[in-house]
Amino acid sequence: MNQFIDLHCHILPGVDDGSKDLKETMEMLQIAHSEGICCMIATSHFHPHRGHRSPKTMKSKVAIVRKLAEKIDPKFRIYLGSEIYFTQEIPEQLQRGEVLTINGTRYVLVEFSPSDSYEHIYKSVQQLQMYGYEVIVAHVERYDEVRAEVAYAEELVDTGALLQINTGSIVGKYGKDAKKYVYKLMDQDLVFGVGTDAHNTSSRSPKMRKAAELVEKKYGEDYRRRIFFDNAASLLRKRKR
Predict the structure, then answer these.
(1) Fewest CB atoms within 10 A around its CB: which of 5, 89, 100, 125?
(2) At a CB cut-off of 8 Å and minimum separation 6, what does 119 contact?
(3) Residue 174: exposed, middle, or buried by beta-carbon count in 10 A (0-12, 13-18, 19+)?
(4) Which residues, other chains included, contact 115 with Cβ-Cβ below 8 Å and sequence gap of 6+?
């Protein structure tokens, strides 16, 4: 059976606008496992308005969620990270250990406002890179100016940034423009990894299998494996700080 790694999800209970409690977390884990997801990176928001919990709190939460996952399948793994809304303070906060990177590595999942200019996104990525971080741009298809020009995505990748897309965009859940754009990115091999960006069990549940099947049908098994598993697995094997 094909296995997938969810690079971006909000599975931790009661820390942001994702899972509201342990019951919902358990139900989300069951959905994810049934979809073929074997690993999830819990990327709760580090955002002025959507969640701003301390690393200590997040580590205690993920310890509980890992036990729930083990009840479903002893091989079901939950890793810890965060979805970081970029502000000018973020590089220093990362340096001080106030914001979680992915699994303690130098990789950071970074989001922006949909209306942010491409120039702002590009300069922010560069700023983080100057501090020694490997930047993964969260759900790149959401940013209006970036989505308008595939050349912008190419330029981000050329600078060393990695691009993450959402499963919902692949299957057309977020409209024709987002779907068309992520397929353009895949046509040009610009996608690093895929996340469900799951927040709950209903409108934004951790569904991955249909998106993976569509990608495999169009681009082949090797490509599907690379962006749904191999690239994220390589990231998780990186040495911790």
Answers:
(1) 89
(2) none
(3) middle
(4) 144
Q: Which of 70, 61, 142, 132 is nearest to 101 (CA)?
A: 132
- Please give the backbone phi and psi of residue 184, each rounded to the nearest 5 degrees, phi first: -65, -40
- Dihedral over Cα of 3, 8, 13, 18: its sign: negative
Distances (CA, A) of 193 to 64, 133, 155, 196, 202: 26, 17, 17, 11, 23
- Tokens encoding 17: 């606008």
pTM (2 d.p.): 0.96
Q: Are 7 and 47 in contact (CB under 8 A)?
A: no
Residue 234 tokens read as 């390589």
Determine the angle formed by the axes of helices 176-187 and 209-219, rounding to 10 degrees.
Answer: 50
Gyration radius (Cα) of the chain, Å: 17
Interval 84-136: pLDDT, tens: 999 999 999 999 999 999 999 999 999 999 999 999 999 999 999 999 999 99
Compute the half-sphere exposure of residue 219: CA atoms within 13 Å on the CB side of its CA: 22
